[in-house]
Amino acid sequence: MRLLSLTLAIAASVLAVDPGYIVLLRDGVNVDEHLYSLRQEFAASQRTEDNGIIHIYESFNGYAAKMDPNVLSILTNSDDILAIEANKEYSIMDVQSSPPSWGLPRISSRNAFTLNTPYFYNEKAAGQGVDVYVVDTGVRIEHEDFDGRAVWGITVPKGDKDADGQGHGTHVATTIAGNKYGVAKQAKIIAVKVLKDNGSGNLFDVLKGIDWVAKQKETTKRPSVINMSLGGPKSFIINFVVELAVKKGVHVAVAAGNDNKDACQYSPASANGVVSTGASNINDERAFFSNFGECVTLFAPGLNITAGWKDSNTDSKTISGTSMASPHAAGVLALILSEKDMTPAESKEKIVSLATKDKLTKLGDGSPNLLLFNGYQKSISAKKSFTGFKIQRLENNNNVYF
């Protein structure tokens, strides 16, 4: 369950990534003029095979390139440059397989979970009109739990199919917006595949996925949420790009990480403006693997969560991790936005104000004692607060959402 330097939480070792660097230019630097000069340096190098532009990003002023040490040294001393980082491994943050789910009823109750706790939500504002981009391993968009509300957006890793060959992305997406397993049952899911079918990926591709989403948001003008159940060691560039997407109006939920360490050491968990989500267990304790600290916004169910899986249109699986906590938060962001469009700062303030306070234990130093809450519960006050809305129980009381 240890997160290995931007690697899959369940992996045995760090996988190799494509060599190269992410270059972030300062505001006002013309990327075409900069790249013209860079290509001049490439041409002058005696190691031309080690140099080249890999990708130019659109929503932020930067690019990916491979370069030899001499060219890298020249760039490092250039006034054009805000930051340079080597390509890194990124991957999913699940932990283990195990028994049935309890997450949905817990986020619509102020009290501890019991076997007959139902899930309440506003069926007239259940994420309708909100786009949720699942930046992950892809999504089985045909899964019956989506009822036709999932579409394919983009596949970034070269050579991978437009499919979820790992399962993680489908689990995340059905937790966000599935009819049976999901928080926001009318939200639209858009698959953004940045991780390969083995669950691994790299910084180049993650940034390309975020870049694509930011451009989509500019085009559609629709309320938009990104869920990123992935991460690794703290990175200035990944935080910068995520924060830029937030400034452009994209609401972002991220996994806090699975190393039982300070989340401020990780990205994008430490990015400003995101809902950084730690994992809790069925006993309202911080899950033993969950990162903690001041960079965590709140906690959400993340241990033994059942949702859809990749192998068939009816498949499901139970897994654990902050990867499972983050989509609960993304779903609540979609609920909030379907009732009223607002800025990411306002939606973050709203989700924090809704959270159930002082119920969690074993939090870790600096963590907020906040448990995700969707704003609905079976009580006289809740019914009065949401007059005209149907407060609905989804499942038979004898079953626990599986």
Report on this structure.
It is a single chain. The chain has 402 residues and is an alpha/beta fold. The protein folds into two domains: 21-86; 91-385, 3-Layer(aba) Sandwich (Rossmann fold), CATH 3.40.50.200. Helix content is 25%, strand content 21%. It has nine helices and 19 strands. A seven-stranded parallel β-sheet has the order 7-8-6-10-12-14-15, sandwiched between helices. The protein has a four-stranded antiparallel β-sheet with strand order 2-3-1-4, with helices on both faces. The protein has a four-stranded antiparallel β-sheet with strand order 9-5-11-13. A hairpin with a 5-residue loop joins strand 2 (52-56) and strand 3. Helix 5 runs parallel beside helix 6 (236-247) and helix 7 (322-339) packs across helix 8. The protein is globular, with a radius of gyration of 21 Å. Residues 1-16, 95-100 and 379-402 have low confidence and may be disordered. The active site is at residues 136, 168, 323. GO terms for molecular function: serine-type endopeptidase activity.
